[in-house]
Amino acid sequence: MARCATAQDERAGAGRATPPFHAITPFTMLDYPGRIACILWVAGCNMRCLYCHNPQIVAGKGAIGEEQALAFLRKRKGLLEGVVFSGGEATTWPGLAAFMARVKALGYAIKLDTNGLRPDVIARLLEGDLLDRVALDYKAPLHKFRTVTGTSVFARFARSLDLLCWQHRISVEVRSTIHADLLGEEDILEMAHDLSRRGYRGTYALQRAVAGPDRPTLGDLPADTRPFDAVRLARLSPLELAVR
After folding, report:
1. What angle do CA 146, 174, 124 make, to 5 degrees?
2. Other C-beta atoms within 10 Å of 100: how many?
């Protein structure tokens, strides 16, 4: 699937072929449901979400190379079952597919956390049978997408959404990060109905943004203490909601 790279994509990937990883989380039982896993944090991102609390990963450079990461994974064979590729945004790394193939060859299951702005990369990973699970972040509805993410290419996200909703080979979870300064209850319902219309039948996960004086974000957001009506949302949503 051919596409023209945007200037933002080029900035995210420029000069970052090696080392690609900002850090490795050596152990998690939360980020890959049903599997004991580690997380490889890919440096760089093609979004600038206001609630992002990982600015050092988004705007920083990698410190861990491919061979170092593979050495870690080889030592953990038999102890870990899965590898989560997160970030930043892992799909901005040109070497992602080739590296995932090497991880697969070690016997690991792979989960990708993605913002969906690279449908061409996601299609390539699916075609290469390199993914076992995907978590797709639905950042905001169309009319708020640019405000929340710093980019206006909602159509590219929508192509990834359709691509993942229409396939039935791997498990997909769609999730949204909620902060009352950015998204209201009607925005959440709009996204839930959009997902349903596109054929998504999984659980729609809602997670509170981590923000405040001790957890700085790209948009310098305050702590979000305003409640939303989870009962109303569950009643009006066409999808099952998981509030975290």
Report:
1. 85
2. 21
Residue 90 is given by DSSP the state G
Under a CB-based contact definition with an 8 Å cutoff, are residues 128 and 103 in contact? no
With contact defined as beta carbons under 8 Å apart, do 41 and 24 qualify?
Answer: yes
| Domain segments of the chain as ranges | 7-243
User: Structure pTM?
Assistant: 0.91
Please report the DSSP string for 3-68 in residue order: -PPPHHHHHHHTT-SSS-EEEEEEEESSSSTTS-EEEEEE---S---TT-S-HHHHSS---B-HHH
Digit-coded pLDDT (tens) for 185-218: 999 999 999 999 999 999 999 999 999 988 899 9
Taking only the tens place, the pLDDT of each residue in 148-178 is 999 999 999 999 999 999 999 999 999 999 9
Domain 7-243 is found in CATH 3.20.20.70 = yes
CA distance 120 to 154: 14
Which of 16-20, 25-29, 50-54 has the least mean pLDDT? 16-20
Q: Are 14 and 91 in contact (CB under 8 A)?
A: no
Q: Looking at the predicted structure, is the pLDDT value of residue 134 above 90?
A: yes
Angle, in degrees to the nearest 10, between helices 119-127 and 96-105: 30
Tokens 């219309």 belong to residue: 197
**Phi-psi domain of 210 (left: phi exceeds 0; alpha: psi -120 through 50; beta: other):** beta
User: Among residues 134, 33, 135, 24, which one has the least CA distance to residue 81?
Assistant: 33
